[in-house]
Amino acid sequence: MADTPPKNSIRSGDVHTVREAGQVLTGESKKGVLSRLLPFMGPAFIASVAYMDPGNFATNIQGGAQFGYLLLWVILLSNLFAMLIQTLSAKLGIATGKNLAEHCRNNFSRPVVLVMWFLMELVAMATDLAEFLGAAVGFNLLLGIPLWSAGILTAIATFLILGLERYGFRPLEAIITALVSVVAVSYLIETILDRPAWGQVAYHAFVPQLAGPNSILLATGILGATVMPHAIFLHSALTQDRIVAKDDKQMRRLFHFELIDVSIAMGLASLINMAMLIMAASTFFHQGLTNVGTLQEAHQTLTPLLGKAASWVFAISLLASGLSSSSVGTMAGQIIMQGFLHRHIPVWIRRLITLVPSLVVISIGLDPTHTLVISQVVLSFGLPFAIIPLILFTQRRDLMGVLTNRKLTTGVAILIAILIVALNIFLLVQTFAGG
Question: What pTM does this model have?
Answer without folding.
Answer: 0.86
